[in-house]
Amino acid sequence: MMIQPNSPLIYVALLLVFSLTGCESSSEPHRVLARNSHFVVVQTSKTDTYEELAKIFKGDASFASVIARYNPAAADAGYAAIPLTPLNPSGVFTTGYQQVPVLCYHQFTDDTQTTNRMVVTEQAFARQMRYLHENGYQAITLDTLYQFIEGQTELPDKAVVITVDDGYRSYLDVAVPILRQYNMPSTIFIYPDFIGGGVALNWQDVELLAKSPLIDVQSHSKSHANLAFNNNIESSQQYQQRLRQEVEVAQQSIEHVTGQRSIHYFAYPYGTTSTELMTLLERNHYRLGFTVERGYNPAFSDPLLINRIMIYGGDSLSEFKTTLNTFVEIDLK
After folding, report:
1. 60 and 138 in a common domain
2. pLDDT tens sequence across 86-131
3. What pLDDT digit, counting tens, does each position of 238-256 carry?
4. Do 32 and 171 belong to one domain?
5. Cα 34 to Cα 85: distance, rounded to the nearest angstrom
6. Are residues 57 and 158 in the same domain?
7. Domain range spanning residue 225?
8. What's the pTM value of the predicted model, to 2 decimals?
9. DSSP H helical segments within the chain, as ranges?
10. N or C terminus of the chain with fewer C-beta within 10 Å?
11. What is the DSSP annotation of 135-184?
């Protein structure tokens, strides 16, 4: 996207920055005119793009839409105000608010057809990821989603999250090459009792995946048992002990293999949780808990009740598109 003429924010930023720092000469790329802790004002040319500026000043081209948000019109103005700190981390605007779809997959296949609705074909997954890439959607990490919910960062206009549950080998064989093709991060939630099974990843695979900057390995419990309290078979004390096994042993197993101390996200088996489980997750410093409740996630979401949208093998591309609602239009003036 080429830079368009500046919004009034640029003029406000210019006045603010120049009043605090004055004009300064610089040998930095794109001719820094002035800066303070909140803005950098840079001279631009007609060949500059939002993506280029985002990569230079934000360290990530996916923030191009954030820069465009505050500079919606400038080809001839010759400068742009780039926010260095989040100006609107809540994603709430006078016209509505941002929300994040968290997509949930399970299995993949390189067969052209499948009768199992939990299995997505390679062809369908490739079409879906290509659609995201070609239509301006940005896959973000769980760390970024957490920062958004905590009010610490702004998101690109079309932010989505890609998650895969259980730990099937088909994630590595089918999905990962497609995700790498489009440079899209994803999270795989695994449960250790499944790893090493016939159709599952093995621990060497998990170790390999964890080394990729695009792949995040997180916990889906130890055994994938339903973690709701069942007073017909267990006491409250037994339930608490079972929860500790499912949460803490899984975390220790994954961290031991990956060599990472970064298991901060938990996908509830069958989407089922409880007050006791969420309390345990908080005590173990988990940041987000993921259900399979269909819905979206604005900044004011409960961090331990994150909604996800299941993507099924029979979903058409048109049906997939309907899951990508990243903004709720509502008059908030």
Report:
1. no
2. 889 999 999 999 999 999 999 999 998 888 999 999 999 999 999 9
3. 999 999 999 999 999 999 9
4. no
5. 15
6. no
7. 96-329
8. 0.88
9. 8-21, 50-57, 64-70, 122-134, 142-149, 169-170, 176-181, 203-210, 236-244, 250-258, 275-283, 317-321
10. C
11. TT-EE--HHHHHHHHTT-----TTEEEEEEEETBHHIIIIIHHHHHHTT-
Among residues 168, 163, 162, the alpha carbon closest in space to that of 116 is found at: 168
Residue reference for tokens 């267990």: 234
Determine, yes or no, domain membership for 260: yes
48: which 2 tokens?
Answer: 């500059």
Q: How far apart are CA 152 and CA 4, in angstroms?
A: 27
Asked if 63 contacts 51 with a C-beta cutoff of 8 angstroms, the reply is: no
Which of 48, 83, 118 is the endpoint of a domain?
83
* CATH number of the domain residue 223 falls in: 3.20.20.370
Answer yes or no: is 306 within a domain: yes
In a domain, 90, yes or no: no
Please tell me what DSSP assigns to residue 322.
T
Q: How far apart are CA 241 and CA 251, in angstroms?
A: 15
Q: How many domains does the chain have?
A: 2
Residue by residue, DSSP assigns 234-259 as --HHHHHHHHHIIIIIHHHHHHHHH-
Please check whether residues 78 and 20 belong to one and the same domain. yes
Q: Is residue 89 part of a domain?
A: no
Domain match, 70 and 187 both: no
